[in-house]
Design a protein that fits this description.
This protein is an alpha+beta fold. Helix content is about 20%, strand content about 35%.
């Protein structure tokens, strides 16, 4: 019986896939607003109306290190069929260290595709970027990702 060894390309692809799976828990995490400023906690509470925040459904892709806080690329993907019965109702992006922490608030309606979006955000220094999603059943999901910013933006409240 002949042993079949994987090609070098397959070996590298498998190693990269394993590495990305191992690093995923460190890139983004679901949590509550505990440990944040009192102002941010009030904003968080006013948005979620005190609802229990769940894990899952949200995937954030953002560079761990951003050279310039004026334009940091952000990709958000939410696991939802976007059907009439189950869809994302509201999506909120929060930046606790910005003078105005509410970066964006968007409302969605049922459609025939998965919710994937890409944008750029301004960040005032290194921080956790938060994404909240309210589903059609009024449940909330949260995910945050750490970003190290070498040159801050948003130095004033404009």
């Amino acid at each position: 019986m002949k042993t079949v060894l994987p090609s070098r390309r397959e070996l590298i692809q498998n190693a990269l896939a394993l590495l990305s799976l191992c690093a995923a828990p460190f890139r983004a995490r679901a949590q509550s607003a505990e440990g944040q400023s009192e102002e941010f906690q009030k904003l968080f509470l006013s948005l979620t109306k005190g609802a229990k925040i769940k894990e899952g459904k949200i995937q954030i892709t953002i560079p761990r290190l951003a050279d310039n806080g004026h334009s940091v690329p952000l990709k958000i993907s939410i696991d939802s069929p976007m059907s009439q019965q189950e869809h994302v109702k509201t999506l909120v992006i929060l930046s606790p260290r910005n003078p105005r922490p509410l970066v964006a608030k968007m409302n969605f309606f049922p459609m025939n595709t998965k919710l994937n979006m890409a944008t750029r955000v301004r960040l005032n220094g290194s921080q956790s970027l938060w994404v909240l999603a309210q589903m059609s059943d009024l449940s909330w999901y949260s995910q945050s990702a750490e970003v190290e910013v070498t040159e801050s933006a948003c130095l004033d409240a404009s």
